[in-house]
Design goal:
Largest sheet: 7 strands, mixed
Structural class: alpha/beta
Distance between the termini: 26 Å
Oligomer: single chain
CATH class of one domain: Alpha Beta
Order of helices and strands: HEEEEHEHHEHEEEEEHEHHH
Strand content: 15-25%
CATH architecture of one domain: 4-Layer Sandwich
CATH superfamily of one domain: Ribonuclease Z/Hydroxyacylglutathione hydrolase-like
Length: 305
């Protein structure tokens, strides 16, 4: 998901006529210093419940479920050997058991980038049928490599019982992307959601690759039917409570309601995002990637129905 920032332009007051005379002697403004890349957060593990951990940094969040025999992992972060090594190093601080299963919530490489490395290490990579289709057809960004496809796929539900633990994966409708899954650990009342939940950031609907505002709304409704008290979001440095998930869905409901009202009132597609009030939601959507023409076309069409 992408966090958008507004750029505010401060316009100076008109300069007095006497001051204009000095402008001939003014030195050219110094060129701005090159922008340095934002430092990457370190890969860090934190305990959530007995046998359950959340790993932040290095891409999207990962969820670690330690069983009696192995590790069930949800999402393997950005495609980079150092990130993969750091993730495994953090897992080894809590268990020496191998990662035997990797669930992939969606195709974006900050979540699926190390799939091939886990495959090479002998893990099963599990995702939805739609995820496998998307990985075969989408176009990665120029600086990205297409992630490896899952080796085990399912249409709607997948049940994994391993080492006394149970993981229930589900894929309903396209939300953040067309291949999204959530992974529920009923014995711990915990769920890993991928980017269908984010903390302190602007949600991202990749409707070019099957995402859907209405599907996203539906999926969150289905999530809230589960008996859980902790959710691991796709991004953010902390888990979310069920009450926070419900509050997040209310914001999504409000966004969709306002978007539909704007379309019904005749707001042109090019003005739609600017017309939807989101300041009270804490989100800025009148900016990329929401304004990408292909995405805006699909969003407008969906809100028109």
């Amino acid at each position: 998901m992408v966090l958008n920032r507004r750029l505010f332009l401060v316009v100076a007051a008109p300069v007095a006529a006497a001051g204009l005379a000095l402008s001939a002697f003014a030195q050219p403004a110094a060129a701005p210093a090159p922008r340095q890349p934002a430092p990457q957060a370190p890969v860090t593990i934190r305990p959530l419940k007995p046998g359950l951990y959340m790993v932040t940094g290095g891409g999207g969040n990962s969820t670690v479920r330690v069983t009696a025999d192995t590790v069930i992992l949800v999402d393997g972060k950005n495609n980079a050997q150092p990130v993969y090594d750091a993730l495994l190093a953090q897992i080894r601080t809590v268990t020496d058991k191998p990662v035997k299963y990797l669930f992939v919530t969606h195709h974006h490489p900050d979540h699926s980038g190390n799939d091939q490395r886990f495959l090479d290490a002998g893990a099963q990579v599990i995702g939805s049928d739609d995820l496998k289709t998307i990985i075969a057809t989408y176009t990665p960004n120029p600086n990205q490599v297409r992630s490896a496809a899952p080796t085990v796929t399912f249409a709607r539900e997948y049940r994994l019982a391993e080492g006394g633990a149970l993981a229930l994966a589900s894929h309903d409708r396209g939300g953040h992307t067309g291949g999204d899954i959530m992974v529920y650990f009923p014995d711990l009342k915990a769920v890993a959601t991928g980017d269908q939940l984010v903390v302190d950031g602007v949600p991202n609907i990749d409707n070019v690759n099957g995402g859907s505002a209405l599907g996203w709304q539906h999926n969150l409704g289905e999530l809230l039917k589960l008996d859980f008290d902790i959710a691991v979001p796709g991004h953010g440095d902390r888990p979310m409570t069920k009450a926070e998930v419900a509050a997040f869905k209310r914001k999504v409901d409000t966004l969709i309601e306002r978007g539909r009202a704007a379309v019904k009132a005749g707001v042109p597609k090019e003005q739609l995002l600017a017309a939807i009030r989101t300041d009270d939601l804490g989100w800025t959507i009148n900016a990329p990637p929401w304004t990408t023409p292909a995405r805006l076309d699909r969003l407008y069409a969906e809100l028109s129905n």
